[in-house]
Design brief:
The chain contains nine helices and ten strands. With 334 residues, the protein is an alpha/beta fold. Strands 3-2-1-4-5 form a five-stranded mixed sheet, sandwiched between helices. A hairpin with a 2-residue loop joins strand 2 and strand 3. Helix 5 packs across helix 7 and helix 6 runs antiparallel to helix 7. Bound molecules: 5'-O-[(R)-(carboxyoxy)(hydroxy)phosphoryl]adenosine and zinc ion (ZN). 5'-O-[(R)-(carboxyoxy)(hydroxy)phosphoryl]adenosine binds next to helix 4 and helix 5.
Length: 334
Amino acid sequence: MSICILGIESSCDDTSAAVCKDGQILSNLIANQEVHKAYGGVVPELASRAHEQNIVPVVDQALKRANVALEDLSAVAFTLGPGLLGSLLVGSSFGKAMALSLGIPIITVHHMKAHVLAHFIDDPKPEFPFLCLTVSGGHSQIVLVRGYLDMEVIGKTIDDAAGEAFDKTAKMLGLEYPGGPLVDKYAKEGDPKAFGFARPRVGDLDYSFSGLKTSVLYFLQKQTKGNSNFIQENLHDLCASIQHTIIEILFKSLIRAIDKTGITRVAIAGGVSANSGLRQRLQTLGEERNWQTFIPQFQYCTDNAGMIAISAYHQFLAGDFAEQTVSPKPRFGF
Ligand code: KG4
Ligand code: ZN
C-alpha cells in the first residue's frame, strides 16, 4: 500500500500544503502574504489571520493537483516549530482536526530539519553524512547530517540570522520587506568590492551578523550626510557589497566546518539559499576544492510544505507519530 502524506507549513508568513506519495512530491502549493510589505516585516497577528483565510483553499488545491482524495491519505503532517505561535497554531489545529476526522495519524515536523531534508525531494540526493548550511530569516546554522532523522547543529549565529542581515540592511537602503530577494536582484549589476563592511570575529563555527548591520548603518549615515542621493546613486554597488560580505561570512565558518569534520559533501538550504550569489559561490568553491555540492530548486529553498511532507515521509517510515495533545513549539530546539 502507498504511503500518502499531506504536509502543512504555516510557521511564519507563507501558507503551504504539499502531497508526498511514497517519497515523491506530487504537489507543493504556497500562498504568500503580501499584507506584511506595508509594515516592513512580518506582523504576527496579521500572519495568523491570513493563514486562517488561506489554509482551506491551499490544502484543497494541493490535494486536487496531486489527484489524491482525502481517503487516500495515510497521515497528516504539520510544522510544530520553531516559528510564530499564532501562525503555528493555525497549521497544527487544522492538521490535527483533519487527521482526527479521517482517523489517521499525525506527524509533527521540525521546520529547520525540514529545510535540510528538502534535499531529498529531487535528484541528486546527498549521501550521509553531509554538511548543510541552513540559512533563513530566523536561523543560520551549520548542520552535520548523519541520517534523515539524525542531525546535529555544529555552528550557529549568536545574534541575527543571515536572512535578517539581508532584510535589515535592505530596509536601510529603503527596500521593501523581504529585502533579501531585492538585494540579490540589484547585486547582479553592482561591484561586490565597491564598499567594505565589518566582518565579525566570532570563534570557530559560529556566526554573527549584528556588526555588519551596524557597519552598514554608520556608513550610510556618513555618506548621506554629504550626499542625500548617495543610496540611489550607488544602490547596485551597495547591494553587491553587502551580499558579498554576507556570503564571505557564511563561507568562512562553513570552510572551517569542512576542514574540521573532513566531510566534503556540502549542501545549502533555507530561504537565503535562493540567493544567486551564494549558489554561485558554493558551486565555484565546490569545483575548486573538489566538494560534492547540493543546491535545492528555488521552490524548495524558501518556506514550503514539500519539505514538511518529505520529512514526514521519513518519520512515517521510522514510526515517528505524534499524539493529538501535541502543542506548537515556537522555540523548538534541535
Ligand atoms: O526559509 P525562509 O523562507 O523563512 C524562514 O524560515 O525564515 O527564509 C526567508 C528569508 C528572508 O530573510 C528572505 O529575505 C531570505 O530568506 N531570502 C533571500 C533570498 N530569497 C529569500 N535572501 C537573499 N537572497 C535571496 N534571493
Ligand atoms: Zn524557513
